[in-house]
TrEMBL record:
The lineage of its organism: Bacteria, Bacillati, Actinomycetota, Actinomycetes, Kitasatosporales. InterPro entries: EryCIII-like_C, EryCIII-like_N. The keyword Transferase applies. This is Glycosyl transferase. Keywords: Transferase.
Length: 327
């Protein structure tokens, strides 16, 4: 049976990208799929190749899809299109209320973030494996079904150098790292037999700093295509990037991007498992030798990757999900 499925995303590229494996799994299984989002986010949705449904106000503060106008917009479209299934990101609870109005099955598809259980979800899928979920949510774990995190960061162009053989352990460095952090990383890399790939803004590299040998400065890089060629990654704490590296079993050094930035909880839990090092932007930053020469972070990261990749894929989850809905 072919179903109509409406996905809902807040105005966040990371959260939209987390929903894409679900959208592809639904479409390739033969289901008609549309994605609802704010009008100012329509272009980001259509860039994925899916039909965008503009709902809610033209612009609103914050990335959540939770205003009364959002509920009305989604419910109005659902009353006409009549989806059997509404699948929504954890920051788009307006879709749960709209699903209840139109009698559709409501599915929460949570990204690598902490979300409280939502009473409007018939089923909740969580891409965080049990060992990385909030410890105070143990009682709610039974309400959540695990699903594998599938990394995606949008379209990109593969540079010719990325297809060449990797001759040295490669470390990817990217994000809004402070100049002090970058200078410290470069200093700690001196003498290491590694290749540094750095996607950093020019103003993040202090004037006069000496670049380590085998350093490549890049304006852009297809992150998800580059990560599998790497030995480790240093970044500013994106939850999506943290999970992408975790699925590949890469040890990570996570440094907040500035004095007021916060590192997501998932990075701290990786650190608690010994698979990542986490540092404050205004504090001491561990040197690269502790990331690439100490075998323990890599071993711990590979154990977590095994747990993550043991979860069912979105494609497998869709097959189990749509059967009772179709009945």
């Amino acid at each position: 049976m072919r179903l109509r499925v409406l996905l809902a995303t807040p105005s966040s590229s990371d959260r939209l990208h987390t929903l894409m494996p679900w959208a592809w799994a639904l479409r390739t299984a033969g289901h008609e799929t549309q994605i609802a989002g704010r009008p100012d986010f329509v272009e980001a949705v259509t860039a994925t190749g899916f039909v965008a449904v503009p709902v809610g106000p033209q612009a609103a503060d914050g990335a959540r899809l939770d205003l009364p106008e959002d509920v009305e917009g989604i419910a109005d479209h659902a009353s006409r299109w009549r989806p059997e299934l509404v699948l929504w990101d954890g920051a788009a609870p307006a879709a749960a209320e709209a699903a209840a109005r139109c009698g559709a099955t409501s599915v929460a598809a949570l990204g690598p973030y902490d979300h409280p259980a939502h009473p409007g979800a018939h089923v909740t899928y969580d891409c965080l494996p049990p060992s990385l979920r909030a410890p105070d949510r143990t009682a709610q774990d039974g309400e959540r079904t695990g699903v594998r995190y599938v990394p995606y960061d949008g379209p990109g162009e593969l540079p010719s150098w990325l297809g060449r053989k990797v001759r040295l352990p490669r470390v990817l460095v990217l994000g809004e790292l402070t100049p002090q952090t970058v200078a410290g990383l470069f200093s700690s890399a001196a003498g290491l037999k590694i290749e540094l790939l750095c996607r950093l803004r020019q103003d993040r590299i202090p004037a006069g700093v000496r670049l380590p040998s085998h350093t490549r400065l890049l304006d852009s890089v297809p992150v998800m295509a580059t990560l599998p060629t790497c030995t480790a990654v240093v970044h500013d704490g994106s939850a999506a990037l943290t999970m992408a590296a975790a699925t590949l079993g890469l040890p990570q050094l996570v440094v907040g991007g500035g004095p007021h930035s916060t590192v997501p909880a998932v990075a701290h839990r990786l650190a608690a498992h010994g698979a990542a090092l986490v540092a404050a932007p205004d504090g001491p930053v561990p040197g690269l030798p502790s990331l690439v020469e100490d075998p323990e972070p890599g071993e711990r990261a590979r154990l977590l990757a095994k747990e993550i990749n043991g979860l069912p894929t979105p494609r497998e989850a869709v097959a189990r999900l749509v059967e009772p809905t179709a009945r």
